[in-house]
């Protein structure tokens, strides 16, 4: 049995501002670092065999904080980066709404933002890296720190949702999903678990 802990990064400066990040490299803010420390405490007793992370700083710093109690190295892979949002990168949410009205004839979740990645491109990227990780770590427990868009695309695909289905599986900052892979079958154990952020969890 292979067990994956899929983790979204902590809150970044652009998350706090409501900006679309994509592959822009906004760092964690103080809240994001505290979220990561709380997640590290939650996972400190898990016997991980490997850590993987997106190289973008909001993910890599989250991974370093979570991996620190385990004294383990982190493998960084560009394929774990967030979806490329093209011309929408850095825009505020209200500006995105305006852009979507201009492109009303398009399904951006399927076709991608202007100059960005399509849904099939991000799914192919996600499946490539996850398949390699699972093959390399059969019967092990792996932590993977990435981004909401990529993790959502991966889970929607393994659930078997049609490509054209407009579904976004929510991941809050430092929320995690657990996926068990056994005998070729994928079992989703939990999604969007952010119980470590409870104020009573010190």
Structure description:
- The chain is of the alpha/beta class.
- The protein has a single domain (2-197), classed as 3-Layer(aba) Sandwich (Rossmann fold).
- Helices cover 37% and strands 18% of the residues.
- It is built from seven helices and six strands; from the N terminus they run βααβαβαααβαββ.
- The protein has helices spanning 13-17, 30-43, 57-67, 93-102, 108-111, 119-136, 148-159, and strands spanning 2-8, 50-53, 74-76, 141-146, 176-182, 185-193.
- It has a six-stranded mixed β-sheet with strand order 3-2-4-1-5-6.
- Helix 3 (57-67) links the parallel strand 2 (50-53) and strand 3 (74-76).
- Helix 2 (30-43) runs parallel beside helix 3 (57-67) and helix 6 (119-136) packs across helix 7 (148-159).
- The longest helix is centred in the middle third of the chain and has 18 residues, at 119-136.
- The chain is globular and about 50 Å long.
Describe what is shown at a glance:
With 202 residues, the chain is α/β, with parallel strands linked by helices.
Total domains, how many? 1
Task: Compute the separation of the termini in Å.
Answer: 31 Å
Q: How large is the share of residues in beta strands?
A: 15-25%
Mean pLDDT: 93
* Content-based structural category: alpha/beta
Uncertain ranges: none
**The CATH architecture:** 3-Layer(aba) Sandwich
Strand order of the largest sheet: 3-2-4-1-5-6
Question: How large, in whole angstroms, is the Cα Rg?
Answer: 17 Å
CATH homology group: Phosphoglycerate mutase-like
CATH class term: Alpha Beta
- In DSSP terms (H or I, runs of 4 or more residues), the helix count works out at 7
Order of helices and strands: EHHEHEHHHEHEE
- In total, the number of strands is 6
Shape descriptor: globular
CATH topology-level fold name: Rossmann fold
Please summarize the sheet with the most strands.
6 strands, mixed
What is the helical fraction, as a range of percent? 25-40%
């Amino acid at each position: 049995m292979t067990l994956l802990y899929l983790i979204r990064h902590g809150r970044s400066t652009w998350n706090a501002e409501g900006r679309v990040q994509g592959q822009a490299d906004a760092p964690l803010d103080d809240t994001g670092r505290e979220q990561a420390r709380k997640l590290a405490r939650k996972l400190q007793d898990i016997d991980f065999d490997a850590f993987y992370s997106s190289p973008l700083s909001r993910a890599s710093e989250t991974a370093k904080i979570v991996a620190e109690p385990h004294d383990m190295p982190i493998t960084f892979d560009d394929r774990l980066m967030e979806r490329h949002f093209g011309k929408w990168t850095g825009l505020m949410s209200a500006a995105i709404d305006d852009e979507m009205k201009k492109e009303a004839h398009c399904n951006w979740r399927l076709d991608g933002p202007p100059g960005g990645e399509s849904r099939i491109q991000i799914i192919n990227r996600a499946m490539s890296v996850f398949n390699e990780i699972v093959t390399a770590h059969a019967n092990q427990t792996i932590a993977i720190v990435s981004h909401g868009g990529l993790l959502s695309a991966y889970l929607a695909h393994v659930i078997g949702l049609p490509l054209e289905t407009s579904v976004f599986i929510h991941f809050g900052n430092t929320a995690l999903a657990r996926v068990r892979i056994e005998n070729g079958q994928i079992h989703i154990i939990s999604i969007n678990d952010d119980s470590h952020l409870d104020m009573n969890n010190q």
